[in-house]
């Protein structure tokens, strides 16, 4: 199955410190390892940012964060260049009340007609409003 993979979903799936999300996270990782996860160009930066933030807040050790990054790198992801239409991305971010990064995920899912895997509640609500299915 092909789907768009938001950084928040992969970070939550790899975190292993949120027991309530464990089953859903395992399903997401199986999908990512057995299907084709499509991501915008900034995806790796967002995963690294989340790992760095987790270390800074004392949630994870630096060693553990490095392991998370290596696991994320092992996922089969197809990186699609970020939108070449910054003005359109701005319009979408404002219309959907999202960050530019999250609007890029939603645009990618909408434009490719793919479901979106996200752990971000605001992104999930925006996806529902524009008719993008969420995993």
Largest sheet: 4 strands, parallel
Order of helices and strands: EHHEHHEHHEH
Helical segment tally?
Answer: 7
Could you say which structural class the secondary elements and strand pairing correspond to? alpha/beta
Mean pLDDT over the full residue set:
88
Here the CATH topology equals Rossmann fold
Total strand segments: 4
Specify the overall morphology. globular
| Percent of residues in beta strands | 5-15%
Calculate the terminal CA-CA distance, rounded to whole Å. 11 Å
Low-confidence stretches: none
Write a structural description:
- The protein is α/β, with parallel strands linked by helices and 135 residues long.
- The chain has a single domain, classed as 3-Layer(aba) Sandwich (Rossmann fold), CATH 3.40.50.
- Helix content is 61%, strand content 11%.
- It is built from seven helices and four strands.
- A four-stranded parallel sheet has the order 3-2-1-4, sandwiched between helices.
- It is globular.
- The model has no long low-confidence stretch (mean pLDDT 88).
């Amino acid at each position: 199955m092909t789907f768009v993979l938001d950084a928040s979903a992969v970070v939550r799936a790899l975190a292993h410190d949120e027991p309530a999300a464990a089953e859903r996270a395992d399903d997401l990782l199986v999908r990512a390892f057995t299907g084709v996860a499509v991501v915008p160009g900034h995806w790796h930066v967002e995963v690294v940012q989340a790992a760095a933030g987790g270390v800074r807040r004392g949630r994870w050790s630096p060693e553990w964060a490095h392991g998370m990054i290596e696991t994320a790198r092992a996922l089969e992801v197809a990186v699609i260049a970020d939108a070449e239409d910054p003005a359109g991305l701005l319009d979408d971010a404002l219309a959907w009340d999202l960050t530019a990064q999250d609007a890029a995920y939603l645009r990618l899912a909408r434009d490719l007609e793919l479901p979106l895997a996200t752990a971000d509640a605001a992104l999930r609500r925006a996806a529902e409003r524009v008719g993008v299915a969420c995993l």
